[in-house]
Specification:
32% helix, two-stranded antiparallel ribbon, 2 helices, elongated
Length: 96
């Protein structure tokens, strides 16, 4: 399994990012479902270090930004995860 990287071109077709994210989440669920002592999934983070300001301001190279609710709605992510948790018999207890 890779480090969970999801590469996406913002100029891509509408819906591609969501489809690719779903595939990445399912890959993780397939992998994690084979663990014997699984902890419930409580937190989802989608982080990027590849952002730039419209006005060309400086962003530190090591800065990582959470893009949940910026690029993909958190409700959509939760719905995908809940659907896949049933398929892979996993427990999800989201922290609010």
């Amino acid at each position: 399994m890779d480090a969970g990287r999801l590469l996406y071109n913002m100029d891509g077709k509408e819906g591609e990012m969501l489809r690719d994210l779903r595939v990445k989440i399912e890959d993780f669920f397939k992998w994690y479902s084979n663990f014997k002592n699984k902890e419930p999934i409580q937190l989802v983070e989608l982080m990027t270090s590849d952002m730039k300001c419209d006005n060309k301001c400086a962003i530190p190279g090591g800065l990582r930004l959470d893009v949940v609710d910026l690029l993909i709605d958190s409700t959509t992510i939760k719905n995908i995860m809940l659907e896949l948790s049933t398929k892979y018999k996993m427990t999800i207890t989201f922290k609010e």
